[in-house]
Structures are given as structure tokens and as C-alpha cells.
Here is the input.
Amino acid sequence: MERIVSLCKRKGFVFQSSEIYGGINGFWDYGPLGAELKRNVKDLWWRAMTQRRDDVVGLEATIIMHPKIWEASGHTTTFADPMVDCLLTKKRFRADQIDPQSGVVYHFSGAESADKSKKSDEAYSCLVAPGKNPELARKSARQFYQQRGVAEAVLLGERTETVENSTRYNPENGSLLTEPRLFNLMFKTYVGPVESAENVAYLRPETAQAIFAQFKNVAEVARQKVPFGICQIGKAFRNEINPRNFTFRSREFEQMELEFFIRPDEAVEAICGEVARPAGAGHPGPPQRNWGWQMWHKYWVEERLAFYENIGLPRATLVEYWQKPEELAHYARATVDILYKFPFSKRDEKGELAGEELEGVAARGDFDLSQHQRFSGKAMTIFDEELKAAWAKLDEAKKSALAERYFESRRNYLVKMNEAPEQAQKQARQDATALGSGMYVPHVIEPSAGVDRLALALICNAYCEDQAPDEKGKLEKRVVMRLHPRIAPVKAAVFPLLKNRPELVAKALQVRDLLRPFMTVFYDDAGAIGRRYRRQDEAGTPFGVTVDFDTLGEQGAELKDTVTLRERDTMKQSRVKIDALPTLLLERIR
Ligand code: GAP
Here is the structure.
């Protein structure tokens, strides 16, 4: 990982934000290559998720929205992580990310100075790992009491206790941590000049909520019928307690989210007579009318895995992790995390990289739209003509069975949201009656990915060290970024063999201008050709185009207007006609 981070800075993929002022923890800037890489990630996602589909449309909403949105979504109350501080160094940790430790804990009830002029009754503890010197605990304790004004402390009330798998101690120095406190991760600000409670607003912690809040507007104008989706790419902000692993956990990042709205299963059953369920592993094929939430969920998991493979992440580097029931958010019916095996991932019991989350694909039921319906007082229901017609044809027993199931799920949701039981009952009954007239709040499947995490995965996956011949043919170490041509920041580099031969330079510039309308091209005439190749290998440029004397026809007319095309990964070189270059390269980068 260190080598990757160093390459990112050296080549201009990623810089620390505000570096000249010492940086700011959890914030990263993308340099020239990183900016192109991120743009490619977003463009490919956008193309795959909306432009190449009939059933998904886009949205671009504001970062700051009405604060009620975050009350409805639950973020103001539940979007919090437990944090703990080291009593000695004040370093802050996420309580749920502390590795359990075992050893002997030294407890002290207090301390007083040698001349007895100062005393502290504050208790302190420090864990000493097996085999380590107990003096370490006493040294930490003296430091702790010194910070409280007791210099050269005589420690009081020492006693020991053996603990196993405790998360109460700082893994770095054994010092006791504070009790966990919940810390809301939303960045708060004020709208307008007055910093008062009624002007509080938040930087969005996810892009998803804007999609729910604009659902009705989009559904009306987009001429879409459920099932259909709304997608968005944009910045999100989380005041992470412990930003870490380079850009993986940042405080400012970008998300690519799709909310795909579907019929409740009861509506599918009313229309199709049955609801199809996943029958095995793999992609379930093109969407069908009789799909319920499980098929749609499976479909989106497979679509997203295919997307990652299509931009160069091999299937073997990805993990499809089905959250266990106890891990699911209270509103989720199922969530699959798509993990990438980052170099910093933890290892499983077999020593394999376990993977870290790139994307979550969640089946969220009708929770989000229902919440916004309750908080805004605006109906989030849609009218489904097909359902109304199908319902009218059902026999009474079927109608009542489906209505009862729908009633139960609506009532459960309302009760969970603390509605009074009678009110929940009444509202759920109305919802079940409305279903029979074709009205319902759509359910949603949400594939939610991070741009920065994906860019980092692509960088980690591409980084490679191999050997290449130097100018004299001697093998030397080569760093090469094997980025898929679709994602590579620069697609082709164009080189004149020598920069002091105007005919070569003029021809190379012509080739650059020929390719430029179709792809990002980099022109480089500085240094020996081998060095120029190496620089582009490190930048991940898949193709090098060299204009040489053959191009000018000096070695025979048959080679005139041909160039050397060098492939980054194999270092193979071939002779290609200049006219054929755009088509040849476009086939490889699209
Ligand atoms: N709307 C659902 C949602 O926001 P999430 O799992 O909290 O779900 C979705 O976030 C994705 O956003 C993650 O899979 C990850 O790729 C990205 N993400 C979340 N927190 C991040 C952070 N602090 N830094 C970078 N990316 C982050």
C-alpha cells in the first residue's frame, strides 16, 4: 500500500488536501491523472446505469437540503458511530473498530506526589500484553497523573486483573479508553447569516435521500412506470471519527447511487398470479414482469458485479457478502456488500484477504418513501393502472389474502416507527384498501457505490512491478499501472522518435490531433524513447504511438504513414497505418 500511495503522489493521481498547510485529515485531492480516472469511473457508471437503459433516469440535486429530510431518513437520530478516546493520548477511535486484546490490566485508584502536596483520586487502568514488562503500565499511569498535576506520582491502590478479548483498551499503548459515546457523523452548518437552531442545515451524508424527496416530481415528468429507477452521482460528507486507509474512508467523497423503484410483491402477485423467486446462482437474465423484490435484488447484485468486471476488476478480487440478519439495517430486507480485496483488508481464517466494501446493494422495502410521506405530509404513492385492472379480476379470497399481507407489512412498519397502535392499524387498513384501487408506495432496491473507493480499488488492482529492458537491453524493474483501457486516464501517448527532427515532430503532432477528438492523448517528446514509455507505463496509458523514420517513408514507401503501436502490458510493438489508428484504438477503449 505504501508503494501505491507513493506512486499516487509521484504521478499525480492523489494528493493530500491542503498539503502546503500540513494537510487536513480525511480529505484528498485528485491530480491530473486522478481527475481523469474519476471522471472515467463516473462516466462509465452513468452510461451503464441510465444512458444505456430505458428504465433509469438521472437527477442532480443540491448538497444542502431541507433539514427535515434527515429527520425523515433517520440520520439526525441514528446516523452516529460510537467513539472512544484514549485517556492518555486523547487519540479518538471508533469503538466498533477496536481489535479485541487480552493480557493483564493494571488498575490504579489514584496517585499522590512524593511530597504529598498533590493528589488525584481519578482511577486509571492500563493493559499489558502477555510477555510485556508490567513497568509499561506504571509508566503510563505516571504520565496520566502527571497530566493531572501530580508530578513524580506515587501510584496508589494497584491491583491486577486478567482480561480476554477486551475492547476497552487502546491497542497502541494499552491505556484505558473512555466509555463509548455516540457521535453524529453529519456535518452541520447554518443557512443564512444567523447561527440559530432554526437555520441549522447539514451537508448530505448520502445522495440517496434527494432521490426519494424528488421521487414524485421525477416520476411525473419522466413518463416512467414502476419498475423504474432514478440515479445520481455527487458529493457526500461524513465527519468520520477515524478516516483511514488512504482515500478509502474519507470525510468528503462521492457516491454513485441508484434507487430502483419496484412494485410491492402483493401487487406483482395480483398482476401475474405468482412472484418469481431466484432459482440459483448467477444473473437471472432480462427483467420479467413477475419479479418481486428478491429477483430484482439479485438482478442488481449481478449487474453491479458485471460492471466491475467490465472495467477491469477480476471476479476473483471481488466478494459478494450477504449481510447476516443481525447485521441488516432495521428497514432492509436483504443487503449484499460487494467487497474488493484491498491490500489493507483484514485476512480471514484461511489467511485470504477478506475484502472491504465497495458498494452495498440493499433491498429497502418501502421505508424511505413512506418516511418522507409521513414527514412531509405529501403522498408518495403512485397509481398503477395494471394493478387496478388485475385486482378487479381476482376472486374475493385472493383479494383478501393479498390485502391482509399488505396490511400486515404496512402496520409493522408504522408500529416500528412508533405510531400509536390504533393509528397504525387504521392507516395500514387504508393502505391495504388503496392497494386494491392500484395505489401503493413503491419499494426500492438501492445499489450504492463510492467513486473514491472504486478509484482506489482500480489503482490497487492496476499496480504492478515487472521487468523491462532499458536503453541497452538490460532488464530493469518497471512499475506499470495495468488499468483497463476503458478506465485509463490517458488512452494513447504520442511520441516523435527525436524531438530535434521537425518532420518527426510535425507528423507526431498530426497523429495527436487525429486521435484527440476521440480520446485523451498525451504528447511527449522529452528524453529517450524508453524513458517516455516507462513514464506512460506508470501513468497507466495503454497505448504508445511512435512516429519514426519509417513513418516518413525513409525506409521504403510501403512503411510511409505507418507508426509503431506499443502495448503497455505486453510491451509488444506492431506497425499500424496512421489512418487505421482511431478505429483500432476506439475498439479497445470502448
Ligand atoms: N445510501 C446508502 C449509503 O449511503 P453506505 O454503505 O453508507 O450506504 C455507500 O455508503 C457507499 O459509499 C459505500 O459502499 C462506499 O463505497 C461509499 N462510502 C461510504 N462512506 C464512505 C467514506 N467515508 N469514504 C469513502 N467512501 C464512502
Summary: The radius of gyration is 30 Å. DSSP finds 17 helices and 29 strands in the chain.
